[in-house]
Structure formats: structure tokens, C-alpha cells
Amino acid sequence: MYVQKIEKDVSILVVQYESLFQKVLPVLTIRKADFKMEGLKHVTEQEIWHYLVAKKWKKISESDLALHKVIADIFSLTVAQYMTFMQVEELKSANWFASVGENELQVLLGKQESSKISS
To answer: Average pLDDT in the 27-55 region?
Structure first.
């Protein structure tokens, strides 16, 4: 579920900043290789871009982003920053009670006695 959401978000952000994304794609590829060497094997250029657009440049319009600033932000991104962002995004989108039935949820919320739960 989260993977589908982030893929949708990433594709929207890539389209939104398409011209800038295409200009810095080689830099993103280098950064992806750096992340791979640091142990993060499944990151993509689009996911790195998603982090930058959603976190670093959240309040900056595309026209205000200078190319040198974009490249500096890509190279200054650490694995720890990226992983923290991804964990927070996962926690925001997770449905914590997906596997819990309605009756169990009512018991957890104190609205029903546990003896009334039927399997």
C-alpha cells in the first residue's frame, strides 16, 4: 500500500519538476550509487528526488531553485536523513489497525468487554 502511494507521489513530483529533474539526473545517479555503497541498496533516483522536493524544497518554487543549489542539496543528503524521512512517511501512511477486526478495535478502545469478542 505505501509503496504504491510513494510511487504515485514520486511520479507526480518528477512530472512537476521534470525539466530540473532531467538536468540533474546524472547527479542523482551518482548519489544513488553512493547510497548503495553505504548499504542502502533499493533506493532510486526518483525516491531521492521525492525526498528533496517533499522535505528540502517544500516551500520553494521550482523557479526559485538554482541549479547549483539543487546539486549541492543532492550531494549534502545523507543516508540517515533519507531513512528518517522514509520512516516518518511510512508511519504517516500506515494503517495501524488493518489486521484488527472491528470487535477487537472496540475492546482496545474500551468500548466493549473482551468477553464479548467472538472469533
So the answer is: 94
